[in-house]
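Here is one chain, start to finish.
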Amino acid sequence: MNNRTITVKGVGSASTKPDFVSLSLRVSETDTDYQNAVNGANKRVFALENAVVGVGFDKTDLKTLSFNVETNYENVEQPNGRYRRVFAGYNCVYGLKLSFDLDALRLANTLTAISKSGSEAEVDVRFTVKDPESVKAELLKSAAQNARAKAEVLAEASGVALGELLAINYDWTEVMFASETRFARSYGADMLNEAMPEFTPEDIESSDSAAFVWEIK
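Its structure:
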């Protein structure tokens, strides 16, 4: 039995143009009364829903990712110089997401509508890809080709031949697909009909790897 093997790490890389936009939104309300905090946060979400519907989205396009009510405390100095932990209120927080095909005008109008909604939502804009699975598949194909090429060079240089592929080891590390481009815009009293900026998000650079084990003979 031939126990001689060669193990090579194959690295696949890809440069992909973003075609999808993902807005991560956070709305919150703080009040000393629990119900008031929840109701206040609900009103902000409702205002946000109305804003996105007003620029062409369905209400269901705005997805709720998380809901949390935290109890806040603050340290208050006492006359004796010591500090006492005092209840400061309930903080109700919603995490939401809105995603759509990349379109500069639609993005600008959406951000404008959100800024005018009264929701006071915190917004993070990410440029990504609509079909990450197809990009992942290409990365793995590239990694396999890269590993084979390396193995052939090493085998030839060592005076041996590659035999049967014995194993593939892959750790299923999550690959993130997001452009480094950030989108920021200041809002005046009425920006919906203003000229929109022209921009092209930076390509998404991604990579993945796997280890391949061949028999050598």
